[in-house]
Amino acid sequence: MKLFSSKKKIAIIGTMLTTMLAGTIAYAATPIKQDAYYDTFKLVVNGTEQFISDTALKPFIANSRVYVPIATLQNLGIANVQWTPAASGQAASLAVSPKGGTASGEVALYQQQLAALNTQLQAKDSEITTLKADKARLEAEVDKLKQSSSTSGDISSKDLTALEDTLNDDRDFNRYSGPTGVGTLYFDFEVDEYRGDIEIDMYIDSKLDSTALNALKDDYRDFDDFIEEIAEEAVRSFKNSDVIINVYNGTARSNPSRIVEYEYDGRLRDSIQD
Q: For the sheet containing 243-249, what is the strand order?
């Protein structure tokens, strides 16, 4: 806290604006001696804190009242000030009017409030955009699940069993004449449905050793064609489904290893050679 005073620490304060009045006031002829205290509060104009280094322009507190120099109001663009010295027997006068009219301060304040609201709206717009994207993603997932559920509903266990019986009973599907070193392979089939796809597990009835397995992989073109015929048979029964075919080296009960997984969606994917 700074004390504004003479050597006796007393300030001689002339005309001070104690209230915001529009009009003309007469100059007080008799000075008033008071102690003045500076830097004890902040001066904020339209939401912006003002820093004034010139002591002659700083607001201060005296006798429990807050005083703001007229020149400060003018410098900050708050008020228009007109000082008329005494002349021809007329007392000096001070005319004070709001800068740009009484509404200018309110306009500036409202503009600041509008700017703050615009910032909040931009943040909300960004949040809304994110929520819309999340909504669209979830709706797509729901549609996908509905479609999958609808497709699954068209696949009956009876139809799956019928396909499984066909594959197990038909020699075109349950046996494969392999190359030298492999011989004829016999398969057992299990058919199931998974998320609208037909899943076929093929088990070789006798496990192949590494030499026979390599020979079968060398014969991949013929074996892949054999698998494609099985996939096409499945599609004839389930036209709207893709087909997954797993080939296992050994019977289902022997905990066999999978040799290859094929996918068929109108075209056979993968190969036993891979």
A: 175-177, 184-194, 197-204, 243-249, 257-264, 268-269
Q: Model confidence at 148, in pLDDT bands (50, 70, 90)?
A: low
The pair of structure tokens assigned to 104 is: 């200018």
Q: 267, exposed or middle or buried, with CB in 10 Å at 0-12, 13-18, 19+?
A: exposed
How far from the centroid of its chain's Cα atoms is residue 19's Cα? 51
Residue that terminates a domain, selected from 65, 99, 133 = 99
Lowest-confidence range among 32-41, 50-59, 99-108? 99-108
Torsion sign over Cα 93, 99, 100, 103 = negative
The pLDDT tens digits for 24-46 are 454 455 777 778 888 777 778 77
Under 8 Å between Cβ of 93 and 26: yes
In a domain? residue 274: no
**Which amino acid appears at position 93 of this protein?**
S
pTM for this predicted structure: 0.45
- For residue 82, report the phi and psi dihedrals to the nearest 5 degrees: -130, 115
Tens digit of pLDDT for each residue in 121-137? Answer: 999 999 999 999 999 99
113 vs 43: CA distance, rounded Å: 19
Q: How far is CA 131 from CA 96, 103, 137, 141, in A?
A: 54, 41, 10, 15
Average pLDDT of 229-250?
94
Nearest-Å Rg of the Cα atoms of the chain is 47
End-to-end CA distance of the chain: 86
Number of domains in the chain: 3
Specify the higher pLDDT residue, 163 or 156. 163
Mean pLDDT of 231-250: 94
Give me the domain span that covers residue 109: 103-153
Among the candidates 81, 99, 117, a domain finishes at 99
| Same domain (yes/no): 167, 257 | yes
